[in-house]
Amino acid sequence: MSEPVDVLTHPALAGAAHGFLGRKGGVSTGVLAGLNVSFSEDDPALTAENRRRAGEAVLPGARLVCCYQVHSPDAVTVTEPWADDARPHADALVTSRPGVLLGILTADCAPVLFHDGKAGVIGAAHAGWKGAFTGVTDNTIAAMEALGAHRADIAAVVGPCIAQKSYEVDEAFERRFLEAADENERFFRAGKPGHAWFDLEGYVAERLRAAGIGTVAMLGEDTYAQEERFYSFRRATHRSEPGYGREISLIGLR
Fold it and tell me: Which of 111, 114, 166, 234 could potentially form a cystine with 249 if both were Cys, beta carbons 3.0 to 4.6 Å apart?
């Protein structure tokens, strides 16, 4: 009997069907063993089955909708589900349509799920450092507002991502953030000469707070450090592994 899909939830999003999924409960094998949802590295049949299992674990019968993620700040409004080969190049999705399951793929980047329970509007964003820095969460909130959401009523939760203790960056990376705002210094901890440790989760959460939404929460799960539970691009790179897989975060309206 296969192990169940691992679904992490948060009470701030309790009004919507949602889940931050890891690698448990899937059919992929080898270095991708588990619930890999990326078609780029795996047998398409295995990935399709993993995506089916993921959707059924969160909102059975819903239509899964994903975008072609490119580390951009762009958010797209979903009015009708599209074919997988017609995915728009973007890194966030919003909708007010029930029965549509928004999906974001990650493997160290921060997935963010949004819900305005009063307006009946949801969102999902892929916030790697580049997308977060250039405003993907801000654009997600704006797209939700265009559907009738109100900032004070939006709850957002930052899901599993690489933690500061696992995320070493060079001084050029740090300088980019400090030049944008002096207060960004708080998201860096000094490391070896010419390097620092970056708090992606904290930075994304602060961007959400600065946008003025009602509730901001973090799961505090480190993808890099939990090999049995999550895929990690950086961990796989450090080990020179041939692939790294992706986990998925999902939200939908019943």
Answer: 111
